[in-house]
Design goal:
It is globular, with a radius of gyration of 16 Å. The chain has a single domain, classed as 3-Layer(aba) Sandwich (Rossmann fold), CATH 3.40.50. It is mainly α.
Length: 166
Amino acid sequence: MMGAGKSSVGRYLERRTGLQRFDTDELISAWFGKSIPEIFTEIGEEQFRSAESEVLAGVCPPQPAIIVTGGGIVLRRPNVQHLKRLGTVVWLDADTDTLFERATRRGNRPLLKTDDPRGTLSKIAAERAPLYEAACDIRIDTTNRLHEQVGELILDQIEAQTADQV
């Protein structure tokens, strides 16, 4: 979900592990040569989701990597199937107040450009929660946690899962 810390935690994990990081929002921005808010404004959410799916489908790293996606990636089932084929799917979650505070810091979230941004975020979070739950292998609550703490929790849980599979 927006504001959960996906991009920041992804950058931390890249530094910490040395693994290559792919951020679908960064890839989409580079493809269009525009920011995500500009893309949303110019082509709309549905076309953005199509571009997002196309970009994600092109992410097939030959080695383990960190893949950071936008919160709406779960809205299309083939995206989730692709992510599951690539590896462990982690859902970064937080309470609604935390998500809202983080998501509105810069004022550039296209989906929150409404008369009631807090209500909109709550509605989106409630609608997507079952999709995140179904997609994830690991769920981490990022409320009151630093990006480094979240990154270490992810690494610990992936290590524990790997040990369980041996």
